Amino acid sequence: MRYMLLIYGPAEGGPTPEQLQAEMPRWFAYQQEIEQSGLFLAGEPLQGADAATTVRVRDGETLITDGPFAETKELLGGFYMIDAPDLATAQEWAGKMPNIGYGSVEVRPIMEIAAEMAQS
User: Fold this and answer.
1) For every residue of the chain, which 3-state class applies, written as one string?
2) In the chain, N or C terminus with fewer CB closer than 10 Å?
3) First CA to last CA across the chain, in angstroms?
4) pLDDT tens digits, residue range 32-81?
């Protein structure tokens, strides 16, 4: 089963840029370990919320606003997509992420849509 590991960090009061830079070797090691496990499908860091835009269509009108849709205490910073045998394995990998001491990782199963439904 495929899972998204959505990586969140605090919107305020998180690590300093220097602390984040010092953490990079742990991220590189995590990346190498998850790739070698055979579970890794995809993963990328995201630019900051200040680079985000939100698009909505209401009553036929497209509305584009700067930033995330809602204010939050945590911001989405990146993701991994893995193919794990079960939820417990996906949660185990989430718990190994370098940011887990100050952020959080949402583990969400990917909805599998049957090929027949996708073609209709």
Assistant:
1) CEEEEEEEEECCCCCCHHHHHHHHHHHHHHHHHHHHHCCEEEEEECCCHHHCEEEEEECCEEEEEECCCCCCCEEEEEEEEEECCCHHHHHHHHHCCHHHHCCEEEEEECCCCCHHHHHC
2) C
3) 23
4) 999 999 999 999 999 988 888 889 999 999 999 887 766 678 889 999 99
Please report, for the domain that includes residue 52, its CATH number.
3.30.70.1060
Reported as a single tens digit per residue, the pLDDT across 24-34 is 999 999 999 99
Q: Say how far apart CA 1 and CA 42 lie, in whole Å.
A: 14
Q: Find the domain containing 60 and state its range.
A: 2-119
Query: Which pTM was predicted?
Result: 0.86
What count of other Cβ atoms lies within 10 Å of the Cβ of residue 27? 15
Helix, strand, coil percentages (3-state) for the chain, rounded to 5, are 35, 35, 30
